[in-house]
Amino acid sequence: MSFLSDMALNQSEIEVVCGALEEWCEETRTALDSDDGRDVATVMLGLYKTGHGTKGSILEAMRRVNGE
């Protein structure tokens, strides 16, 4: 399996990750299109791909990572 196929998401998966990203960026006052926003998107995609399959689960993991 190639790297790109490992990273591909279907529409419902995109909605989960994007929903978490939008909520996180709103809570932390981070611009989606900033370097920090892109970094968060990358981390959240990794979290999703490693078993955090809901918006709540992704956000909870991000809060743990950030010591919240």
Describe the structure.
With 68 residues, the chain is mostly helical. It has 4 helices and no strands. The termini are far apart.
Question: How would the blueprint of this fold be written?
Answer:
Blueprint: H1 3-7, H2 11-28, H3 35-49, H4 55-65
Helix pairs in contact: 2-3, 2-4, 3-4
Question: Briefly, what is this?
Answer:
With 68 residues, this protein is mostly helical.
Annotation, overall tally of beta strands: 0
Mean pLDDT level: 88
Parts with pLDDT < 50 across at least 5 consecutive residues: none
End-to-end Cα distance: 36 Å
| Global geometry | globular
Largest sheet: none
Residue share in helix:
over 70%
**SS class:** mainly alpha
Descriptive key words:
mainly alpha, 68 residues
